Amino acid sequence: FAKVAPLELESILLTHPGVREAAVVGKTVPDYGEEPTAFVVKQSSTSVTDKELVDYVANEVAPYMQLRGGVIFLDEIPRNTRGKILRRQLREMLN
Fold first, then answer.
1. Which structural domains are found in the chain, ordered by start?
2. Phi-psi region of 90 (alpha: psi -120 to 50; beta: other; left: phi over 0)
């Protein structure tokens, strides 16, 4: 996951019409390291699926950058008072 830029994956996800917000963090996997995992807030009028988003990103990036950790839908991305994504909080949801 160290070679994967979360912001790059987030930028790709945000180009999908069904995505309102996105954050990517590494999901710890024993004997492997970390797998990119996306947290997504859907646009209110969409029925986008996790598989659709995984495939969407896979079409845009090299194999090592794909969302192997999958996609998790949230009502909102946790942020601090300045609007910065609370990535540690997202990682805690995974482990």
1. 6-94 (3.30.300.30)
2. alpha
